[in-house]
Description:
Layout: H1 3-28, H2 36-43, E1 44-56, E2 59-72, E3 77-90, E4 93-105, E5 110-120, E6 124-134, E7 139-150, E8 153-163, E9 168-180, E10 185-190, E11 192-196, E12 201-211, E13 216-227, E14 230-244, E15 247-257, E16 262-266, E17 270-273, E18 276-279, E19 282-286, E20 292-295, E21 298-301
Antiparallel strand pairs: 1-2, 2-3, 3-4, 4-5, 5-6, 6-7, 7-8, 8-9, 9-10, 9-11, 10-12, 11-12, 12-13, 13-14, 14-15, 15-16, 15-17, 16-19, 17-18, 18-21, 19-20
Amino acid sequence: MNRRTLAGYIASGFAVSILLYSGYFFVKRPERPTPHVAEEEKKVIVFRDVTYSGEKKGAIDWELKAKIARKYIDRPFVELEDIDGSYRPRPDTVVLFKGTKGELDTEAEKGKMDDVEIVYKDEYTVKSKSMDFDFKNSKVSSKNAVDLKGKKLTMQGLGMVADTDKQVVDIEKDVHGTVETDTRRFNFSSDRFSYDVKQNIYTFEGSVAVKGEDMTLFCDRIDVTSTGDEVDKLDARGKVILNSKGTLAKSGRAVYYLKDDKVTLEDSPRVTKDKVDMEGQKIVYSLSSGKISVEGPKMRIQR
């Protein structure tokens, strides 16, 4: 066998080896892993302009609309964007709400929403960065800063729980705001705040401070009651201290009647004016005239 023939056999054998190795590589090569994002996309169906709702006693009690909804096919979970909704805790009450985005468990009828604004019967609005909703139990809550505004009320605080069935709103701490009447404006601060919508009562509790145009009041708790849109009275309890135009009053309870511009002091009341201490069973003090009326009086003049 000459050298040329031997070289040809060697070249042919080398080419066949390469082909066999290439075929083995392509047949036995490992599969590329499927990206995680692709798997997630297979589990989600995207809808546009969708509506979700829930029923109670055969009637729709909540409805939620979203421009975009991502529905997970393996669980009752929906991601939402550009949200508008309504909730009916009672047949005569409609609560409107909206948010930029959120999520909903369609079976539990629970979810959360970002950049929320709630409108209750055109009487007040509540705003917060984020809120949790529980439609079945008529509850709305937030751990963030809350801004509440009504016709006569402006209130800010941290943390909120609202029971739309009982019509009660609680702000949990760091409360401050204003209550206005047709003729007066009061600035309030306290540890906690509660608004009973049915009885139209604002309650401030814990280190309460009230400042008006011509008075300052401190107490442990104060109830602000109204008739319609008009504030009737401020009912303060627990270590009450009232200071107005040089008159200092202390008692266990003080009721300020706004229409008469008078304060009734009870529970060991004591008033100091012009270096004269007055005590009695009940003391009535007129803020506008400065007159003081004492039942069962005891007086002491300071030297």
